[in-house]
Amino acid sequence: VQLQAFGGGLVQAGGSLRHSCAASGLTFGSYAMGWYRQAPGKERELVAAISSGGSTYYADSVKGRFTISRDNAKNTLYLQMNSLKPEDTAVYYCAADLAFGRIISGQGADYWGQGTLVTVSS
């Protein structure tokens, strides 16, 4: 199983970025997917998650600014990040698990992608 993430970078506050996570080696449509992030000196936190059926979950800190989506035909997960703030600066990871509840409970996931760094300048 491989989860390959793209889309990190440097952006000014108020700007936008889109992350992509391409999955291979698993039946993508059967998996719940999530985006996590870890800021320097902080614990990893769940940002957003989407079930195999398309139900979504967002952390309060990103509601109304971030949108998670998936394209099962392309085996790809997306995270559209708008109105970025300096506190969104972190390494972002995509993750996959058969259990949506496991992802949104913060218990982790079966598979993880490599992290991509997002830096938001003020």
Explain how this protein is built.
With 122 residues, this protein is mostly beta strands. It is built from one helix and eleven strands. A hairpin with a 6-residue loop joins strand 4 and strand 5. The chain is globular and about 40 Å long. It starts with a strand and ends with a strand.
Element string (H = helix, E = strand): EEEEEEEEEHEE
Shape: globular
Mean of all residue-level pLDDT scores = 96
**Quaternary organisation of the protein chains:** single chain
Low-confidence stretches: none
First and last CA, distance:
37 Å
- Helical content, roughly? under 10%
User: Mind describing the biggest β-sheet?
Assistant: 7 strands, mixed
Strand segment count:
11
Which class of secondary structure composition applies to the elements? mainly beta
Task: Supply the key terms.
4% helix; mainly beta; 1 helix; four-stranded antiparallel β-sheet; 50% strand; 122 residues; seven-stranded mixed β-sheet
The gist of it:
This protein has 1 helix and 11 strands.
Sequence-ordered SSE layout with sheet pairings:
Layout: E1 2-6, E2 9-12, E3 17-24, E4 32-38, E5 45-50, E6 56-58, E7 66-71, E8 76-81, E9 90-97, H1 100-104, E10 111-112, E11 116-121
Parallel strand pairs: 2-11
Antiparallel strand pairs: 1-3, 3-8, 4-5, 4-9, 5-6, 7-8, 9-10, 9-11
